[in-house]
Amino acid sequence: MIVKRIIxxxxxxxxxxxxxxxxxxxxELGDPVEMASAYSKAGADEIIFLDISATNEGRQTMVDIVxxxxxxxxxxxxxxxxxxxxxxxxxxxxxxxxxxxxxxxxVANPELIAESSARFGAQCIVVAIDAKRFDDGWHVMTHxxxxxxxxxxxxxxxxxxxxxxxxxxxxxxxxxxVKDGFDIALTKAIVDTVRIPxxxxxxCGKPEHFPEVFEKTDVSAALAASxxxxxxxxxxxxxxxxxxxxxxxxxx
Length: 252
Prior knowledge:
CATH class: Alpha Beta
Structural class: alpha/beta
Function: IGPS catalyzes the conversion of PRFAR and glutamine to IGP, AICAR and glutamate. The HisF subunit catalyzes the cyclization activity that produces IGP and AICAR from PRFAR using the ammonia provided by the HisH subunit.
Distance between the termini: 18 Å
Subcellular location: Cytoplasm
Radius of gyration: 16 Å
Number of helices: 10
Oligomer: single chain
Number of strands: 12
CATH superfamily: Aldolase class I
Strand order of the largest sheet: 1-4-5-6-7-10-11-12
Catalytic activity: 5-[(5-phospho-1-deoxy-D-ribulos-1-ylimino)methylamino]-1-(5-phospho-beta-D-ribosyl)imidazole-4-carboxamide + L-glutamine = D-erythro-1-(imidazol-4-yl)glycerol 3-phosphate + 5-amino-1-(5-phospho-beta-D-ribosyl)imidazole-4-carboxamide + L-glutamate + H(+)
Organism: Aquibacillus koreensis
Helix content: 25-40%
Strand content: 25-35%
Active site: 11, 130
CATH topology: TIM Barrel
């Protein structure tokens, strides 16, 4: 049985961890390296950094953060945000990231996925899909969830896999920061479409939401931000709840 992963996500803007609701209303929460180190010690299976400012200055800040994190964190970590070229991927991996995530640039140029996967291996390439529900299904949103690409999210997931991505980070724009639970319908639709691992993101508000998404979908990992950053619940509490409900999980 595959061991499910619990992943804290740190949205980073101008060198600080921030969090909002439905991708807006950001508030500053702390230092990313310090928070990542604490999560690593607390039993996180992986850590994800997303540079949500994605400016040239922000990307340079992110490289510095990645270097510091690589020296202080001993679990795999993924970095995304502002990745537009193969040089950006190279820079982040050389700085110490285990995986690099891409979103808007991959939508604009799917060959970036293929090129990155061919050069560094599929295991290093994570494609983030921010999806929002419309009358005709789910659309892929870009630019921090603000622009509707018009692309069907399920079809895009298929393309992402075909181009060589090793993993999908799936975020529901509708449930992001709402804390009412993961978007089960969206998550199941994507997971049932592809063979590569999928990380569920967006909407977690309590430990019970983790076993719920693991039980109702075949997702490989689940991610949260608010409940960890605000010290509402610990990673251990989440893992204990998963174990109690029969989910195969690593101990914290």
